[in-house]
Amino acid sequence: MKIKSLLILIILPLLFYSCDDDTGGFTQIKGEERLVYLAIKAYRTTNGKTGPFVHQFLMVTEAQIYSYKMANDVQAINTDGLGEHWDNVISKLGGYNEHALVMSSQTNDADAILVGLLQLPNAETILLEDVTQCGVGIEYDSAGTNYITVMLMKVDD
Fold first, then answer.
1. Number of folded domains in the chain?
2. pTM (two decimals)
3. Span 135-146, pLDDT tens digits
4. Chain segment 46-75, per-residue pLDDT in tens
5. 90 is in which domain, residue-wise?
6. CB-based contacts of 145, cutoff 8 Å, min separation 6
7. What CATH number did the domain enclosing 42 receive?
8. Is residue 21 part of a domain?
C-alpha cells in the first residue's frame, strides 16, 4: 500500500507538469482527408515517386482553413489567396517548391476526388513534383458540396 501511494505521489506531479505546457493547436484530420492523401500517395508511387511523402498536420490545418473560406464564399475556388497560408506553413516548417490544387466536388470518394484533381490544369505535373509534405483539407457548405485544398511542398531533412 505504501509503495502505491509513493508511486502516485511521484507520478501525479509529472503528469500535471507534462500537460501544463501544451500551447499548440489541435488538428483533427478527417477520414476523407486521410483517404485523399493516401490516394495521392498511391498515385505518386504508381508513377515512380517512392521517396518520403507525409501528411503534414500543419499543412492540413492551413488547407482546412482555406477550404472553409471557399465553402463560405470568402474565397473563390482558386489558389490566389493561399499566400498567407503558405507563409504560416513556411514560418513553422521551412520548405520550398510549394504547389497547390483546389476544387469543389459533390463526391466524398477519395478516388473520384483524385480523378477530379487530375482534371485540373497541370495537376499531374504538380502531384508528381519533388515534394515531401502534403496537406489535404476538405470542408463542406450547407448544400453538401465539398471544397478540397491540397497543399504540397518539399522540406529537407
1. 1
2. 0.84
3. 999 999 999 999
4. 999 999 999 999 999 999 999 999 999 999
5. 27-154
6. 71, 104, 105, 106
7. 3.40.33.10
8. no
